[in-house]
Design goal:
Length: 116
């Protein structure tokens, strides 16, 4: 049975995420879109962490497929979220490149998780 305790490195990483998120929310207070973005990204990252932990425990093939789908959906969501924040800041050719990379990343993840 896998050890259910979190490692020190995991705790430090989640602590850094919490601190950084609190700081970002503090600096963005008054901008509901930015605060919502930080909160949504945090929720997606926490869910991704929980899914990866379940995936590492490897309980069953059917459950494994559902966890892979959740991991792919969450990583695609995060990719699209960050691309949507970065692309508008770039010149038009780079903006297109950001979106192309986001689509290629999502498609590559789908291929790696489900077709390979």
């Amino acid at each position: 049975m896998a050890d259910r305790r979190s490692s020190t490195l995991t705790k430090l990483g989640l602590g850094a995420l919490a601190f950084n998120s609190a700081f970002a929310i503090y600096n963005s207070w008054g901008d509901a879109g930015s605060v919502g973005f930080v909160l949504a990204a945090d929720v997606a990252l926490w869910l991704l962490f929980l899914c990866l932990r379940q995936f590492e425990q490897g309980v069953g093939r059917r459950r494994d497929t559902k966890i892979r789908a959740a991991v792919w959906a969450l990583t695609t969501l995060l990719t699209v979220m960050f691309a949507s924040r970065v692309a508008p800041l770039m010149p038009p050719p780079v903006r297109v490149a950001v979106w192309v990379m986001a689509v290629v990343t999502a498609a590559g993840g789908f291929w790696a998780f489900f077709l390979n």
